[in-house]
Structure prediction request, 158 residues.
Amino acid sequence: MPPANWSACIPMLTDIDMILGDFEFRIQTAAFQSLERRHRQNKAALQRIGRKAASQHIGAELGTIALAGHILPLWHGGWEQMDRLRAMADTGNPFTLMDGLGKNWGQWEIVEVGERATEYLNGAPTRIEFDISLSEYGPDQNGFDVLSFAINALTHLV
Prediction:
């Protein structure tokens, strides 16, 4: 039996799973069933004489997220949902990603949008399976940028 004030345990309960920019992932638009997030570390092997190489932490690589789900265009969402996501990807801009509990996941870019239409009725799909790949958009401040360092060094040499 849940506690009497069980709703106080959840900061915000909505029917929105995730929001990317102004696109809401929800049952009425595009409901995703799986989210896979990867956060890899960048390591360099430093060769040493007479011993094994040493590993050096260079920094974190950009994170990735893969979303997979479906759209039921006859029920909700319509056929234009995938067009909206492709148009967002075509801008090349990063978008703020927030989950249904209000947590801001930062800025993410759409890397790939895929779809598979199935279960046709009178020439129109009644189910659209989709997958979307996102790449974290790294912040532009507080870090060491090798290209900027090289350009700065070259301008001082000239």
Q: What stands out?
A: The CA atoms of residues 38 and 64 lie 5 Å apart.
